[in-house]
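As a point of orientation, let us examine one representative protein, giving the amino acid sequence and backbone structure tokens.
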Amino acid sequence: MSLPFASVVCALIAALLFACASVAQQSAASEVPEDAAFLATLLRSPRWWAGIVGDGGGYVMQAVALALGSVLVVQPLLVTALLFALPLSAKFSGYRLSRTTWALAVALAVALAIFLVIGDPTEGNIDAPFREWVVPLGILLAVVAAAAAAGMTKIDPGWRALLLGGAGGILYGVAVAFTKYVVELVPRGLWAVLSSWQAWALVAAGLAGVYLQQRGFQVGPLSASLPALTIAEPLAAVFLGMTVLDERLRVAGPGLVVVGCSVAVMLVATIGLSRSQAQRTSGIAAISPVSS
């Protein structure tokens, strides 16, 4: 088996594991009443822990895929997790995906893949000083706070899941922006890692992202929260890369138009998915919020 082909296989396995993990976690989270102790209840759920194990396996396979092949091959393939997750969720929840949902999911996955491949950001500086992070991070955290606050209100379940999933995805993107710097600190020893503010920012963003992701799984359908999370992570990471780390998209002229159109398609498809399934599944306990 050639290395590029092995990379593709590993990336697809990672995507499938991520999809299974999302379905298991959403199934567990959706059964937690909103007036219950959310985290304590999840920690007692075998399904939720099965999802955590699936995530762990997915990250391992993603790392193997990146070791065997390029980022431009692996990252777009990971987007197929969305196409695995939605039919799996439908299967276990007892409903059938509509043609509209399939079309929107495929459009989202293709648009995100195009954005990642054509945008192809250059590598930048990984050790930007704190003062250069303040404004861009402040902007993203303000968006996260607004989305999370709206997602905690009693609005439509589809919108709640979309907002909370998007907020979680932004925080995952923030974590991605810090990851490479922290990883390069590891050979210098544990103290080098623990004494860097980037490591603590990475942990805080990751934990808060997990919490908001699970809340998104609790309050609405997977078809609303997962697409929002899927597009928010790379967009937030690219935003920080371009504003803080001196990364640049390697496109010009027609390429910029294609990238812009792909972002527009992602946003429209994400909102469309949140609407198409929220109404259809509002009465199904496995994928709808439990009344408090």
